[in-house]
Each structure stands twice: as C-alpha cells, then as structure tokens.
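hey so u asked for the seq, here:
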Amino acid sequence: MTNLEARFVHHELSPDEHRRVADVRAAYLSLVRAVDGLLPPCREQALAMTHLEDSMMWAVKAIAMNSEGARRG
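ran it, structure tokens below
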C-alpha cells in the first residue's frame, strides 16, 4: 500500500493505541472545557474551538497512521 492509499483506509488499532487515543481525547476535552469557560462567546472563541477540534483530529490520525495495523499494511 502506498502512503497516499494509506491515508484513505481504516487502520486497526492495538489496545495500547486505543488507550492513547482515549488519553488524547480526554486531554482535549479538558482544554475545550477551559476555553469554553474562559472565553466569551464570539467568533474568535468559535474559531478556537474549531481549531482544537481540527488539531485533535490530526493528533488521533498521527496515532492511526503510525499504528501497528498501518505498518502491517
């Protein structure tokens, strides 16, 4: 499988990788709650939330793309 193809298929995660994804999500949830409580509701707060969501997606994808399942192809 090429790197390009690997971007568009499901990668099975090991139990350790699932735990790491859960830890990443929990860390982001803590940050999102803090941002939600500290910033006034406005466009900038919405953008901050959107970028947190976006960066969490990339963090989870980093785990998936470098998972044992991805390495097996």
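The chain has a mean pLDDT of 92. The longest helix spans residues 15-38.
lmk if thats what u needed
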